[in-house]
Amino acid sequence: MSQKPTPREVVDHMMNHDGFSKWLGISILTISEGSSKIKMTVRPEMINGFGIVHGGIAFSLADSAFAFACNNRNVLSVALDTSINFTKPVHVGDELIAEAAEIHNGRSTGLYHITITNQHGHTVALFKGTCFRTNKSLISTS
Prior knowledge:
The protein is built from 3 helices and 6 strands. By secondary structure, the protein is α+β, with helices and mostly antiparallel strands.
C-alpha cells in the first residue's frame, strides 16, 4: 500500500488535469489540509462590455480555490451549492488572490469561505461553497 498523498500532491495532480485553471493563469501559493491560497493576473480577454472583469472570472478563481481546499485530503468532493458577492470592481492587470478557509469538514459535506483580494489587499469578492464528499480518491493509494 502506498503512503497517503500530501495535500500539495493532490492539488498538483488536480492542476495537471485542469485546463481551465491553467487558462486562468492560476498559480498555487499555499496548500494545507482543508485550505488553499492561489493567485492570478487579470488579462484583457477577461473584460466584459462594461470595461471591468467579467464576474465569471472572479467566480472561477474562487471556485478553483474551493476545489483545491475541499479535495486536498484526497477525497473526491464536488460542489453542492455556491454563491458569491462582488464588493469591488476588478480591472485588467489586477493580481487577484483567493484564500479558501474550511468552516466545516464533515464526513459527507464540507463548508468553505473564500475571500478574493486584489494587489492592494482590498476584498473584491466573497464566495461560499458547500461540497459533497464521495467515497472516491483522486490519487490511488493502493
